[in-house]
Amino acid sequence: MADTTFVFFDIGYTLLYSQGAVTYWQVLHDLGIEASLQEVELAFHLEDKRFMREFPGVLGNPHFSPMPWFLGGANYRLGVKVDLCDAASRWRERQRQARPYWLPFPDTEGALQELRSRGLGLGVISNWDPSARGLLDSHGLARFFDPIVISSEVGAQKPAPEIFRIALEKAGLRGEQCLYVGDNYYDDVLGCRKVGMQGLLVSRFGRLGIEEISDCVILSRLGELPAYLDSRIGA
User: Fold this and answer.
1) Using one digit for the tens of pLDDT, what is the confidence trace for 215-230?
2) CA 114 – CA 172 distance, rounded (Å)
3) What beta strand segments (E) does 71-220 contain?
């Protein structure tokens, strides 16, 4: 990866994380169910990875309503038995109250600043609705990226190669010059490879829940990326 001159990023669970697990933990507490936040976060992580693997394109798709389905799987992992419709309704209300709902990981800004200081170009390629640019800007992150390519704006989405090609054209680059950093092997890594990019995953639980993946690097947090790039220089 010594010839990497540009790094593209996904948004969700790469640069930012949602308060989905926190708000559901609050719902369970409201229902008198004892579960730790760490247990809920792990259940959500494992269910998220299962959906990526088994039901591609469902999460985040406005034409589906997978959340009760998702919660059912998380409840099973937690050993929780509740009225699923009631729990899902309470969860949606908690989500509406959570402001902001998406937050940067603690090491996001520092990692981006370090990469920029090394002369690397930075961009975003994300499957997201029209709120993406405002969301990045609200957290002071939009200033790091050019281009920002959002599926709802360009009419193409990962893992299709078109969205990656659009980003390369805007940046004036070849795929071989770029690294793509995401959290979804099937959308992010396999998608970016179609245009010659290298892919890398960030997973806060390491290989837990993605044991089937053996052909790409997995970092536990974004802050590890500068050191990883250093280790590849001259390799």
Assistant:
1) 999 999 999 999 999 8
2) 23
3) 102-104, 121-126, 148-150, 178-182, 198-202, 217-219
Task: Return the closest-CA partner of residue 109 out of 226, 187, 233.
Answer: 226
Asked whether the bond before 106 is cis by omega within 30 degrees of 0, the reply is no
CATH superfamily for domain 6-16+103-232: HAD superfamily/HAD-like (3.40.50.1000)
- Domain ranges across the chain: 6-16+103-232, 20-97
3-class DSSP assignment, residue 149: strand
Decide: 71 and 183 in contact? Cβ < 8 Å.
Answer: no
pTM value surpassing 0.90: yes
- Taking the C-alpha atoms of residue 87 and residue 82, their distance in angstroms, rounded to an integer, is 7
CA distance linking residue 223 with residue 227, whole number of Å: 8
Residue 75 amino acid letter: N
